[in-house]
Automatic annotation (TrEMBL):
InterPro entries: Jag_KH, Jag_N_dom_sf, KH_dom-like_a/b, KhpB, KhpB_N, R3H_dom, R3H_dom_sf, R3H_KhpB. Belongs to the KhpB RNA-binding protein family. The keyword Plastid does not apply. A probable RNA chaperone. Forms a complex with KhpA which binds to cellular RNA and controls its expression. Plays a role in peptidoglycan (PG) homeostasis and cell length regulation. It comes from Congzhengia minquanensis. The keyword Membrane does not apply. This is RNA-binding protein KhpB. Gene3D superfamilies: 3.30.300.20, probable RNA-binding protein from clostridium symbiosum atcc 14940, R3H-like domain. One of its GO terms (molecular function) is RNA binding. Keywords: Cell shape, Cell wall biogenesis/degradation, Chaperone, Cytoplasm, RNA-binding. GO terms for cellular component: cytoplasm. Forms a complex with KhpA.
């Protein structure tokens, strides 16, 4: 179920703002129920605070936020979510301190968490939306590392006329290697093995 928040304040508007801040959502993504309008009382006596109940709408961003918030709370981490949706792609950037534990070795933990978020968001009750999870610009930094690696290994294969088999990689990382070298006149690339141990091979181009 979606997380509901009840807040009280001097006015309904102030109470709603408090609830939205806690949920990290805006008015367009929630349902607001006014439990108590609140009153100023007479000459300041008998004043009552306004009370509201705010419930996130069941939408894709809400699902992603709720899932990740629960994960990070269970891990004892304080992480802010910057969520942007354009068309059928939802990008979630994680903001916080010491996010290395979320990224994991070569991004393994981040990739696993991204997979789980995609399953959570896409429950078969709407159009499929691809969720991309990132932290500390890891995706961009990893891509540049792989591009540099691909070019260096291609040069080595050309120089020694001997193929090189890389370590197992996720499909998105294999695509970066293939794309980087697809127009290289001296080498060919292909993948071998089965998931999750599928590997890229860089081989001399057959003359």
């Amino acid at each position: 179920m979606s997380k509901c928040v009840e807040k009280s304040a001097k006015t309904v508007d102030e109470a709603v703002k408090l609830a939205l801040a806690e949920l990290g959502l805006d008015r367009d993504n929630v349902e607001i129920e006014v439990i108590e309008e609140g009153s100023r009382g007479l000459f300041g006596l008998g004043a009552k605070d306004a009370v509201v109940k705010v419930t996130p709408n069941i939408n894709l961003e809400g699902r992603a936020r709720e899932f990740l918030d629960n994960v990070f709370v269970s891990m004892g981490l304080r992480v802010e979510l910057d969520v942007k949706t354009e068309g059928k792609i939802m990008t979630i950037n994680l903001i916080g301190d010491n996010l290395g534990i979320i990224i994991g070795k070569r991004g393994d933990t981040l990739d696993a968490l991204e997979h789980l978020v995609n399953l959570c968001v896409n429950k078969g009750d709407g159009e499929y939306v691809k969720v991309i999870l990132d932290a500390e610009d890891y995706r961009a930094r990893r891509e540049q590392t792989l591009i540099k690696l691909a070019k260096n290994l291609a040069a080595s294969v050309t120089r020694n006329n001997r193929k090189i088999t890389l370590e197992p990689m996720h499909s998105n990382e294999r695509r970066i290697i293939h794309a980087t070298l697809q127009n290289n006149p001296n080498v060919d690339t292909f993948s071998i093995g089965d998931e999750p141990n599928r590997k890229v091979v860089i081989a001399p181009k057959k003359k």
